[in-house]
Design a protein that fits this description.
Helix content: 55-70%
Order of helices and strands: HHHHEEHH
Largest sheet: 2 strands, antiparallel
Radius of gyration: 19 Å
Number of strands: 2
Shape: globular
Oligomer: single chain
Number of helices: 6
Strand order of the largest sheet: 1-2
Length: about 170
């Protein structure tokens, strides 16, 4: 803890901005996010794969880079690297639990769009509100310029991870 009562992350003393430090901090953050997601999944009676699907559906609903295209079972299958049967079972569980809606495309009835159900969105918002507050608290300790760099790093890191997934599959 620092003198301000704010926890500080320990970094390797030899190179606090080197690859090793980034790897450690990213693993720690990922572990904490996974723990929170797993607790939500357990509370909702869902599998961790269901949570990954929910996140993908939510991101597709809110991602302007996706061209406003809702998630489809086929895209979800590719994104999560699941079989068609596994995606169907996952979507069946999520639909039964009230988390997603399957909606046929008006122009092509063969196409199914997946949407995060409004009621479930409220449940998730309530559950993850403490995480949002913590994120906002961390953000408040940085200047706008510093946050621009952090956002740029995260965007670049996400782009690299997508490339890695595509190139390994």
């Amino acid at each position: 803890m620092s003198g301000s009562g704010v926890p500080t992350a320990s970094l390797p003393a030899d190179d606090p901005t080197g690859l090793q430090a980034f790897a450690v901090l990213l693993r720690r953050m990922n572990g904490e996010f996974n723990r929170i997601a797993q607790e939500f999944a357990q509370e909702q009676g869902l599998h961790l794969t269901d949570m990954q699907a929910l996140i993908a559906i939510l991101d597709a609903d809110s991602d302007p880079d996706a061209g406003g295209e809702p998630m489809t079972p086929g895209r979800l299958r590719g994104q999560l690297n699941l079989t068609s049967g596994a995606v169907t079972a996952c979507l069946d569980r999520l639909e039964r639990a009230g988390h997603v809606r399957r909606v046929r495309d008006a122009g092509d009835r063969r196409v199914v769009h997946l949407h995060y159900a409004d009621a479930a969105r409220g449940v998730a918002r309530d559950y993850f509100r403490p995480l949002a507050r913590s994120t906002d608290a961390a953000r408040s300790r940085f200047s706008a310029e510093e946050l621009e760099v952090v956002v740029r790093f995260l965007a670049e890191m996400n782009a690299e991870l997508v490339l890695l997934r595509r190139n390994s599959g």
